[in-house]
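From the shared-data thread, chain only:
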Amino acid sequence: MSTAATDPAPAGSATPEPEFSVVGVRSQRHAASPTLLLDLQVSEPSGRPVYMVALSVQVMIEPARRSYDAVTRERLTELFGTPEHWSVSTSNLVFTQIDTLVPAFTGSVTVPIPIICHYDLELAAAKYLHSLPGGEAPMALHFNGIVYYPNSDGGLQMSLVPWNTSIDFRLPVPVWRETIEHYYPGTAWLGVRTQTLDSLRAEKLGRGLPTLDACLAALLEEAGR
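Structure, as tokens:
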């Protein structure tokens, strides 16, 4: 936690206006599922004390803010169609929604925000990130919530984080890949209908194969893939 250099505003003199910035992102090594830690700095420039912020963060991927080579465009055809339609088809993708509590601070504080990385390749956000060869994924963070602070009498006062509070953020794709690879080394996840899974299991048993992956590999080899 750090304190602003300016003199603190008197309690009750103004409504706090928190500002946000991302100062780092890293992989969390020990969690139940692949997780990134987003180091979010929350500031109140006037120096007014803040008791707590009940914060909601929506993380969006904004594909139109990045350029793509020919190979990557081909990989993304399933999501956005052929390149000539990308000017209208590269709509924003929801990555995640997070609710967190920012502890008491004066000036600014940095809090780690856990972001669970789903790796089901049927999900648009995961499919997009998996298709990128490297570089950065353009994202936007949209904030809302409630700020708790002392009024002029020392009592509890509340105000809303403005609904239009947003910042841009660029996620390093290698950090995302490193996180996925740590939890699922050499593995990808696909969603199939229950009936398809039952049929695949029966085929695996009928062929005497040890895993569903081996069964799929055998079927693809027979199909000439």
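Confidence is low (pLDDT under 50) at residues 1-12.
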